[in-house]
Amino acid sequence: FLIKSVVNEVDYRKKLESAYEELKVLDHAKSEFVSIASHQLRTPLTAIKGYISMILEGSYGSLQEKTKESLTKVYQANERLIKLVNDLLDLSRLESGKIEIQKKKTSLDVMVTNVVEMLKIQAQNKNLYLKMKKPRELIPQLDIDEQKISQAVLNIIDNAIRYTENGGIVIEVSLEKEEKKIVIEIKDTGLGMDKKDIQDLFESFSRGKVATKHWTEGAGLGLYIAKKFVEMHNGKIWAESDGIDKGSSFFIELPIN
Q: Domains in the chain, start-ordered, CATH in brackets?
């Protein structure tokens, strides 16, 4: 009986190891497919964006107002597709460990201001305010990968705009000298979250009950990618909310080098 149990145990372990190896192969194949497909999609989408921009700017002659409105909607839909493709590429690189950090001295408040300017039209299209508070004191430069932290901030503000129907978003960069860190706070007057949504918020493909209920666009990758980029800088990211319909606050905390 003992010998039979040992044989069964060995056989069971071999099957587990075989299944694990098959899963690794499948996971690698999935990542490769996502990466290749995303690259193949990004080129034509970028070309479409360029041509629509030229048409809207009048490079091919004047447009009727109705035509301009329709093309603007096409342009916006194309922008959403480009963002999704970029998110999928980032996800693929994160999972395969191919993301590299390229640090340089960066003025965090200037960087956040630039992100806010990029998203102002998106907020205005929903009749929302998007404001950045002036820092209360001089913010020291940080040695960071500007592109990745900028992307993290952009993902959070973009998320806030999509989940806010009235009011708007306020961003503040503050220095906490004693704790040697800089905190970026993004506060919105949006749909809010319950504790369960906050708990799962930074998981990949996570979309809370509010997103499902209100048919909010997005694949649920932006906050996951933001979290990974912040953690690469030994930083922290978290969210707070008093509940549904009570808005949300997101925080990015980065250590002073």
A: 2-96 (1.10.287.130), 104-255 (3.30.565.10)
CB 164 within 8 A of CB 188: yes
CA distance 120 to 88: 25
CB-based contact 130:117 (threshold 8 Å): no
pTM, rounded to two decimals: 0.73
Task: Give the separation between CA 141 and CA 256, rounded to whole angstroms.
Answer: 8
Each residue's pLDDT tens digit, 129-142: 999 999 989 999 99
pLDDT in tens, 148-173: 999 999 999 999 999 999 999 999 99
186 backbone dihedrals φ, ψ, rounded to 5°: -120, 110
